[in-house]
Amino acid sequence: MQTVAASVILDDAYRLIGWDADQLDTREKGDARMALSLALQELWEEWWWDELMVCVKRQCARTYSSATTYAAGDFVYFPATDKYYQCLQAATGEDPEEWDGNNYDLNASYWIEAAATWEGEDYNDIDSPAALEAGDVVRYTDGNYYAWLGNSVTNAMLVASAGAAFINGTYDYTGQVNGRNAYARTTQTIQWNGSQWIIEAAGLTYYSSSDDVATPDLVTTWTGSPSPLPTVTSTEGTVPTPETAGYWCPLTEFHPTLPYTVAGTDYETVADVRKIARFDPRCTATPDEFDFHLTADGVRICDLDLGRPWVWSRRPTPVLTGAPFDEDTDYEATDPQDLVFDS
Q1: N-term to C-term CA, the chain
Q2: CB under 8 Å to 98, separation ≥6 — which residues?
Q3: What is the mean pLDDT of residues 307-314?
Q4: How confident is the model at residue 136 (pLDDT cuts 50, 70, 90)?
Q5: If both were cysteines, with which of 30, 277, 320, 334 could 37 make a disulfide (CB 3.0 to 4.6 Å apart)?
Q6: How far apart are alpha carbons 69 and 86 in whole angstroms?
Q7: Sign of CA dihedral 77, 82, 84, 85
């Protein structure tokens, strides 16, 4: 393709319409550049000119890096398997798949292979945490899907029937106090003070027991007021709900979408796309094309079953609306379509 200075095109255009460039004011020159820009766009988009096309493999998410810290919900592309993955919990240096010498195995505590739709057993059908493995997917009562992180479940304590109604509820494990497990919910606590199990709220003791047992669910006799006295039971065998932090990650449907621009990469801006295919469409008779459509976020690819398809697209049409170049002006990096022309 021959490169021609913008000023040459402008001067020729002025002569063709009988204008004297030296007699044109700034507004008239601006109008002329706009008219030329529109004419250029019409010609540019008239055909898939080879010189204006770019055909490269592109991907729909950032490439995974072991040096990057990922948060739950992040999507990455993993070149070793040519697949996309969703991060399930904060991870640094946790590869989506790990090589065992013969095969890649999914790092299911941190990643799950991305999917456009999810399927899983109903949450209420899970008998206990022991029935779950890291990466298992369930459908919760809210209609959403969640992946089990595989973290160990620490039993909570369920207080019921207490005359002080605000004492009732689920108390989560918070650590050790005086050598025994302690539990809490908002301002209420259950803990061993060295000689008694006590149930407190905002620092005031409401119920206590001198039963010297390992955990409060083993207490047989509570004292205190108001009546009736509480019952304390363990949630052992109960599957934590998705609302309980540290056990589940909500899953997001992944629809492969090529962003129109990818900052920090060598990819050119995607303008008009001619084909998206499994094989290079420029040199393959049957490139195995994928259907696609345009969205506000980018080019969405239908039924993509590989990581990096070939994308054959037209470079964006330059917009010739810039002002004449001024050597005394300080210019800043900007969109490549925002041009100045030489004069």
Answers
A1: 22
A2: 104, 105, 107
A3: 94
A4: very high
A5: 320
A6: 13
A7: negative
Beta bridge partners of 97: 106
- Is 305 a residue whose pLDDT tops 90? yes
DSSP 27-47: HHHHHHHHHHHHHHHHHHTTS
Q: Are 178 and 143 in contact (CB under 8 A)?
A: no
Task: Report the C-alpha gap between 305 and 277 in whole angstroms.
Answer: 11
Q: Quick one: residue 276, left, alpha or beta (phi over 0 = left, psi -120 to 50 = alpha)?
A: beta
Q: What is the C-alpha radius of gyration for the chain, rounded to an integer number of angstroms?
A: 33
pTM for this entry: 0.72
Tokens, residue 174 = 């918070």
Q: What residues does each domain of the chain span?
A: 157-234
- Residue 343 above 50 pLDDT? no
Strands 299-301 and 257-258, bridge-based pairing: antiparallel
- State how far the Cα of 36 lies from the Cα of 14, in Å rounded to an integer: 10
Q: Which amino acid is at 310?
A: W
Beta carbons of 34 and 321 less than 8 angstroms apart:
yes
Pick the closest to residue 6 from 28, 31, 37 (CA basis): 37
Query: Counting every residue, how long is the chain?
Result: 343
Q: What is the pLDDT, as a whole number, of residue 265?
A: 53
pLDDT digits (tens, 9 = 90+) for 250-303: 999 999 999 887 665 555 577 789 999 999 999 999 999 999 999 998 999 999
Q: Is the pLDDT of residue 337 over 50?
A: no
Four-residue CA torsion sign, 331, 332, 334, 336? positive
User: CB atoms < 10 A from the CB of 243, how many?
Assistant: 9
